[in-house]
Amino acid sequence: MKKIAILGSTGSIGTQTLQIVRTNQDLEVTALAAGSNIDLLETQIREFHPSLVAVWGEEKAAELKIRTKDLDLKIVSGMDGLLEVAVQPEAELLVTAIVGMIGIRPTIAAMKAGKDIALANKETLVTAGHIIMPLARECQVQILPVDSEHSAIFQCLQGENKEQIKKILLTASGGPFRGRKKEELREVQVEDALKHPNWSMGRKITIDSATMVNKGLEMMEARWLFGVEPKDIQIVVQPKSIIHSMVEFVDGAVIAQLGTPDMKLPIQYALYYPDRRDLPGERLDFWKLNEITFEKPDMENFPGLSLAFDAAAGGGSLPTVYNAANERAVALFLERKIGFLEIPQIIRSCMEAHKVIKAPKVDEILSVEQEVYEMIESRW
Ligand code: NAD
Ligand code: MG
User: Fold this and answer.
1) What are the beta bridge partners of residue 168?
2) Where are the alpha helices (DSSP H) in the chain?
3) Which residues of the chain have pLDDT under 70?
4) Given the CA of residue 98, which atom of ligand 1 is nearest to it?
5) Which atom, in ligand 1's list, is nearest to the CA of 100?
6) pLDDT in tens, 323-352
7) Ligand 1 within 6 A of 267 CB?
């Protein structure tokens, strides 16, 4: 039985990971970590029997301890707790399904402890890809992408020589506001932005899809995962999310991975790589599908995407600023304190105010994150 640990087990990716464990019956969950939903966490503990569980807040951890005192279980909290889950000796693979840069340190710790990483937590690669990728090689661990586009690219690259990639065609749905102009976007509400046309995901990434910042983050994620320059990553809008991404090779051949939009496929592929397993669910029916259409991304009305290319070009600590500013701006939008169009404006202001640190170390990345948070707090 392959043994896995999950950071972010109560979220969208976390619960779908557990659904795959439930269906297959040949994976063992040895540790779980979550933020605050201890009701769901308790249910997961009783179903999957991990021996170690981390809850972010101390109080919630204490409450969970009381509720589960009938079980042989260690409960930990805070960053130390996340790190303990990350390096737990039993686990062979760590699923990083947590949101934000909080994933950096546990991911590094897990790699140093020899764990393969099924990586959903894109913010870690965006901000610390220059540390994570060389470390993976040094520690001889695998980084298996869970993000659907990156899993698609990874699948297209099986048996291929990475040196022969000409470009990566990263597909995007365009989100719920595709086709709208800035004037129409000014007044959109949180509820509208939370309605993704194809995918059901956590709140932060759903807003990121509406602003196209998600595609910007994914461009930077792809750059590190596959060792390509941002200029060799082309964003292709394909509204139905049927083609999950493509790779063009030096001879002009384009290989694509297609499927119905279901995150369980990329999650399962990462868990069992290089094996494929049956996966119940809807299959592509090309007669029903009829056509697949393509559009250019609209960087004019969705400046969050072009700012990502600026962040990647500036390099160093600039992607951290892009990511941290976005994270806070999305939180303010969800709290209805700012409008939709202010999200990219805040990112731009923070990027303009920043003095880039080349090849930042983890401590520097985390202090840049704090500086950005403080700047946003003082101004908005
Ligand atoms: P989510 O908000 O649904 O879940 C986040 C999980 O992280 C929850 O279990 C939460 O409790 C946990 N968490 C948050 N803060 C924590 C903390 N301080 N300590 C411990 N646990 C904490 O998010 P999601 O949509 O599942 O996304 C997770 C990651 O996967 C993100 O980086 C996202 O960009 C990426 N991703 C998600 C999808 C998707 O379909 N949801 C697709 C591709 C990539
Ligand atoms: Mg994606």
Assistant:
1) 233, 247
2) 12-24, 38-48, 58-67, 78-87, 104-112, 122-139, 148-156, 182-185, 190-193, 203-211, 213-226, 264-272, 286-289, 303-314, 318-334, 342-353, 362-379
3) none
4) 7
5) 32
6) 999 999 999 999 999 999 999 999 999 999
7) no
Residue 243 amino acid letter: I
Per-residue pLDDT of 157-216, as tens digits, reads: 999 999 999 999 999 999 999 999 999 999 999 999 999 999 899 999 999 999 999 999
CB 308 within 8 A of CB 213: yes
Q: Which residues lie closer than 8 Å to 339 by C-beta, 6 or more apart?
A: 186, 187, 333
Q: Quickly list DSSP for 220-259.
A: HHHHHHHT--GGGEEEEE-TT--EEEEEEETTS-EEEEE-
Query: Residue with structure tokens 């993704």?
Result: 196
Residue 175: how many CA atoms within 13 Å on its side-chain side?
25
pTM: 0.98
If you search the block for the tokens 């540390």, which residue do you land on? 131
CB of residue 96 inside a 6 A radius of ligand 1: no
Question: Ligand 1, residues 98, 149, 269: which to mutate, most atoms within 8 A of Cβ?
Answer: 98
Matching residue, tokens 């807040």: 57
